[in-house]
Amino acid sequence: MFGDMMGMMGKLKETQKKVEETKKRMDTVLIDEKSSDGSLMVTVTANREIKKIDISNELLSDKEQLEDYLILTLNKAIKRATSVQETELAAVAKEGMPNIPGMDSLFK
């Protein structure tokens, strides 16, 4: 009984380490998102850190449109980054979880 418990604890610690490594790796995963007309492009990491904003010169003359494009494009990029991060972390967590009946549905 205690051997199983120790094995599970070891596996959980290993999984925790893998989760931390995955979080660090997400800093290197870059996600590009463009506005509908391509006049604005943003790059964020999978950890939702903005790395780059590229604005066309034409868009600089219309402050209101630029603001709207920034909001829409950044929100789309952040949504995609969140999805990538959640998928990666769920895969690591599922891989490291002990086989407990009924827990499979938590990591789909």
From TrEMBL:
<dbReference type="GO" id="GO:0003677">
    <property type="term" value="F:DNA binding"/>
</dbReference>
<comment type="subunit">
    <text>Homodimer.</text>
</comment>
<dbReference type="Pfam" id="PF02575">
    <property type="entry name" value="YbaB_DNA_bd"/>
</dbReference>
<dbReference type="InterPro" id="IPR036894">
    <property type="entry name" value="YbaB-like_sf"/>
</dbReference>
<dbReference type="InterPro" id="IPR004401">
    <property type="entry name" value="YbaB/EbfC"/>
</dbReference>
<keyword id="KW-0238">DNA-binding</keyword>
<dbReference type="GO" id="GO:0043590">
    <property type="term" value="C:bacterial nucleoid"/>
</dbReference>
<feature type="coiled-coil region">
    <location>
        <begin position="5"/>
        <end position="32"/>
    </location>
</feature>
<keyword id="KW-0963">Cytoplasm</keyword>
<dbReference type="GO" id="GO:0005737">
    <property type="term" value="C:cytoplasm"/>
</dbReference>
<comment type="similarity">
    <text>Belongs to the YbaB/EbfC family.</text>
</comment>
<comment type="function">
    <text>Binds to DNA and alters its conformation. May be involved in regulation of gene expression, nucleoid organization and DNA protection.</text>
</comment>
<keyword id="KW-0175">Coiled coil</keyword>
<protein>
    <recommendedName>
        <fullName>Nucleoid-associated protein DZC72_13915</fullName>
    </recommendedName>
</protein>
